[in-house]
Amino acid sequence: MTMFDGDFTRRRMIAVGGGVAAAGLLVQGAAALGQSTGPAATGKPMPDGVDLPANPPATVQPGSVGFAIIGLGDYALKQIMPRFAQSGRAHIAAIVSGNPAKLKQVGDAYGVPESARYSYDSFAQIATNPAVEAVYIILPTGLHAEWAERAFAAGKHVLCEKPMALSGAECERMIAASQRANRKLMIAYRCHFEPYNMAAMALMEDDAVGALRLIRTEHSYRMGPTTPSENWRVSRALAGGGPLEDYGIYGLQAALYLSGEMPESISAATYRPANDPRFAEIFAHVSAQLRFPSGATAHVVTSYDSAGLNMVEARGTEGVLKMQPATNYGGNTLTLEAGRNRQELTPGDSEVQFARQLDHLASAIRDNTPIITPGEMGLRDLRLIEAIYASAASGQTVRLNPDATMRR
Ligand code: NDP
Prior knowledge:
- The longest helix has 20 residues, at 375-394.
- The chain has helices at residues 74-83, 100-110, 144-153, 168-181, 195-205, 236-239, 243-259, 352-367, 375-394, and strands spanning 15-16, 19-20, 65-70, 90-96, 117-118, 134-137, 157-161, 185-188, 212-222, 265-271, 285-291, 297-303, 305-316, 320-323, 334-338, 341-345, 398-399.
- By secondary structure, it is an alpha/beta fold.
- α2 links the parallel β4 and β5 (117-118).
- Bound molecules: NADPH dihydro-nicotinamide-adenine-dinucleotide phosphate (NDP).
C-alpha cells in the first residue's frame, strides 16, 4: 500500500532533482506534467516583503558554527536568516541559490564572501570550504532527502526544515547518510524551542489537566488560486499529500509532545474536491483520529481550503489547556482552565525559537550534546503520516507498532 492509494490513479516513480523518490512512495511525476522540479532549473525571484540588513554583521563570535543556507525563499529570507543575529553560536557562512542576482544581493547584505556563494551546480565545492560546518536545507520538501545526502557527502552537518521528507523510506536514507558521514542530523521543529509550547509540555508533564482524555488540533488556512506548476506546495512531487505535511504536522507533533505517548492506532479521512486546480495533485483536508495506549485520543485536522485557524487544546479530567494561536512565529497564547480558575500564561517571547534552534545544533556540534529533534523524530512523523494516508485510502483503522510502523 502506498501513502496515496485510493485517491490517485496516475502514479509512477520519478526522479526529483536528479535523485530517485524513495522506494515505496509512488508519486505522480512532475515529469508527466511537463514540469521541472530540480533546483538546478530554478531561479526564483526575490520574494515580496524581504528586509535585507543595511549592514553586514561585523564580527563572528569565537567558536561560532558556520551555516550554509540552501534555498533563498520566503522562509529563509524572512524568518531564518535575520534570526542569526540573535544566535550566540551560529552564523551564516555561505548561501546556495539557483538565482545569481539573489545570490549577489543577499550575499552582499549578509557579508557572505563571493567565494562562499554557490549555485546548485557548484554545491559540491562546499566540501573544501572549512568555514561551513553545517547546511540548513530550506528547499521544497521533495528535495530535502537528496540535498541532505549531498550535504553529508560534502562532510557537513545538516539542519533540515520540516517535514523531513516525503516518506519514511526517504527519512531512513537521510539517517543512514548521516551515520555514514558521522555528521549530525537535526529537523527544524521550531516549536520545541518556543516558550509557549515548552511551557505547555511542562504543564502536561506535571498533569496540570489531570488524566489526559482528548487532544484537538487544527492548522488550516484558505490557499489562493494556484496550480502545481506555479506553486510547489500544491505539487505532489514536491509537497506529498499537501496540508498535513506542510501545516498539519504542527498539530500532529503537538499531539505527541503534549500526550507524551505514541498512538497505537489511527483512523483518518482525506478530501480532495474535483475540478479545483489547487487540488489537482494534493488533498484539501485531512482529518485523523489517534488513539493512545492510555485511552486518550487526539483529533488532528488540517486544511488548505477553510478559514484560518491555528489551535491546540488538551483536555483532561481536571482541566483544559488551550493555545490559539498555538504554533505561530509569534503571538502564541496559552491558557490553563481548571474548575473556576483560569490562568493566562506568558512564558516568554516566541521569537527566540529561531535562534535557540540554531544554537541547539551548534551546541550539539561543538559539545556533542544530544539533539532533541533528531532525524529519528522526523522519520517517526513521516511514518505516522503514511499511516494516516493508508487509513484514509482503505477506510480502515490502521494499527501501529511503538516505532510508528504499520502492523500488518
Ligand atoms: P519558497 O517557495 O518560498 O522557497 C523555496 C526556495 O527553494 C526557492 O526560493 C528556491 O530558492 C529553492 N528551490 C529550489 N528548487 C526549487 C523548486 N523546484 N521549486 C521551488 N523552489 C525551489 O518556500 P518556503 O521558504 O516557504 O519553504 C521552504 C521550506 O521551508 C519547506 O520545507 C517548508 O516546509 C519549510 N518551511 C518551514 C516553516 C517553519 O515554520 N518551520 C515555515 C515555512 C516553510 P532559490 O531561488 O534561492 O534557488
